[in-house]
Amino acid sequence: MQQLSGLDASFLYLETANSPMHIGGLGIYDPATAPGGAVGFKQILENTLRRAGRVAAMNNVLVEVPMGLDHPYWKSDGPFDPEFHIRHIALPKPGDWRQLCIQVSRLHARPLDRARPLWEFYIIEGLDNVEGYPPGCFAVVSKMHHAAIDGASGVEISAAIHDLSPDYDTNMHRDPVYKDRRPGNIELLWRSQINTIKTPLRVFEVAKNTVPGFARMVTGLARGKLKRVTDIPRTRFNSTVSPYRVFDAVEFDLKDLKRIKNAVAGVTLNDVALSICGGGLRRYLDSKGELPEASLAAMAPINVRSRDQEGTAGNQVSQMTVRIGSNIGDPIERLREVNAGTATAKELTNAIGAKTMTDYAQFIPSTLTASAARLSSRLALANRIKPAYNCVITNVPGPQIPLYFTGAKMLSNFALGPPVDGMGLFHGLLSYCGKFNIGVSSCREMMPDPAFYAQCLRESFEELLEAAVALEEAA
Predict the structure, then answer these.
(1) Looking at the predicted structure, is the pLDDT value of residue 83 above 70?
(2) Of 223, 252, 293, 432, whose CB has the highest number of CB atoms within 10 Å?
(3) What's the pTM value of the predicted model, to 2 decimals?
(4) DSSP 8-state assignment for residue 64
(5) 162 assigned to active site
(6) Residue 395: CA atoms inside 13 Å, Cβ hemisphere, count?
(7) Domain map of the chain by residue range?
């Protein structure tokens, strides 16, 4: 058994009836590359089960400490039940992109069963009229609890269940999955008491390592060398979320984003992506008559895994707050403003230390945090307090070579994330095989028209690319 870190456990504590805390993805596959040109559901079950030993999260169940006196544990429960975790459905005709997005939204809204390993796959057939994809494609919607993985470890888990060629090994040796002994309540309570005794020493050790960082931050802020993002405006996305979800996505050529990056000195691909989202939100909110004068700000997660932590599951993530230039009409000026903002945010994060948040998260009080999350949801506190962010924009680099699932080639891969109270808009940015896409997850009451927002993102990208090309030609 392995105890969850404070940061991992926080995603369990913060989960409410309206805010399931799982992340996931939508992959679209072409079965024409598979042996025989087709993929059967039983083949998918068998292939996934053979690989499950590589991914502990697929076999682990939660063991709660009595009365919530300490963080829960992961316990291997032996091989998972494939027919429970992998489900098979189909779109009704005509099987177009809108129908797929609606189905993904419904699946994403459902919480995971905590009595089982915290993940699900949905195999969706009938994608015969999705523009840009050949008839006969199928989709895989994956869901895994945020307590088990973050964006970076999710990409690594994806690599474990995919191949680099369509000729997958049907005789692959199945790694054994052993079942851990379940400890009794007395043993769990004893462990929690030992952890309580050790906590002051751990706090002292973390404080000793982080106090210099806080001192640098305070000094830098006082002298004006560092700046925090303040006065964040309230938008429709900064209230309590409903239990209903929407999803849509856009996809661009990665070479076009690189062309934009190269046209404006000093900017990064991440700056370009943030600018596209800023322009998209500008268009969307302006169409509603709700565009604030001040720029919106996004929470941008940062992977803080060290080299020796690469390949590990769980969460090793910090975050920074960045303005996304939604108050600036000119796309190049917006990009430059975003670049300046990310540089300032990085300076602040570096002063404190990117791992500081994860270091202190291990001391999150379990019972108090879960009770506070439920109380906040009941009292709708997100509607009353000042927003800390307007949305989430997370960027996870993916592989630039084709991946295959049970012989079928992955054509696209989109991210799904959790809209939460006070921050009901999630952008998941992924690159894969020469493409760059933005997956949008939101609350249905906050964004009743996700297809329109997707169009706003496309127009923002096209405007930025056109301006970058003009800069190239003028140089």
Answers:
(1) yes
(2) 432
(3) 0.89
(4) P
(5) no
(6) 14
(7) 2-187, 210-398+417-474
